[in-house]
Amino acid sequence: MTASAQAPHSGTRVTRTTRETRVDVELGGASGITVPVPFFGHLLDACTTTWGVPVMVEASGDVAVDPHHLVEDIGLVLGRAILGRWPGYRDVARYGWAIVPMDEARVEVAVDLSGRTGSWLADMPSGAVGGLEGEVLEEFWPALARGGQLTVHGQVRAGNNRHHQWEAAFKALGLALRMATAVRPGLLSTKGMLDVPDTLSQATSETAGQIEE
User: Fold this and answer.
1) pTM of the full structure
2) Least confident of 127-131, 157-161, 170-174, 191-195
3) What are 152-175's pLDDT values in tens digits?
């Protein structure tokens, strides 16, 4: 298993390779989504488009077995890239939230770039959509939280179309990240510190946001 990063001025890049998957994510440089699961690629594109930060995701893996590993590992690596792009979570707004409608569906998401890892989802659709089970899509969120050492909440408030609900959720995540990563000078913490890596190399190491194999 390997991980690597490059300097923020040319984009923060994190690569993770295991026997199951290879995931390459870059923030602030190149952009584009290339994954072997079309519907998940659609959701990632929805998220990154609303976020407004150039994001490149290139991933491959054992999707013939189950897309679970790939979806989870993309979440983990994207989280590490977020942590690497904004080491120590200094000079950002830290908190972000959004409510997104899509036709009959309405979903809210909130994030806290806090160093306190956690993912809480409620009322997300569990059935199949776009060739993926809802329980597989749910694995992206805790992996993102572990990799980014952040807190994320998501809840479906209305709707009955699973495609609309999941797409609204990923768009809401993008808008919440847009708010949370907006420039705000200093560190937003009543303690005066956050328990997160404060250098690029620490943030993108294999020990940051470790995931069970």
Assistant:
1) 0.90
2) 191-195
3) 999 999 999 999 999 999 999 999
- CATH of the domain spanning 2-190, picked from 3.20.20.190, 3.30.230.40, 3.80.10.10, 3.40.630.10: 3.30.230.40
Of 154, 125, 139, 168, the C-alpha closest to 67 is 139
How far from the centroid of its chain's Cα atoms is residue 116's Cα?
Answer: 15
Q: DSSP letters of 119-168?
A: EEEES---SEETTEEHHHHHTHHHHHHHHHT-EEEEEEEE-S-HHHHHHH
What are the angstrom distances between the C-alpha of 177 and each of 28, 142, 161, 205?
14, 15, 24, 22
55 backbone dihedrals φ, ψ, rounded to 5°: -130, 130
Maximum Cα–Cα distance across the chain = 48
- C-alpha 154/C-alpha 173 separation (Å) is 8
Number of residues that this document lists for the chain = 213
pLDDT-wise least confident of 2-6, 7-11, 54-58: 2-6
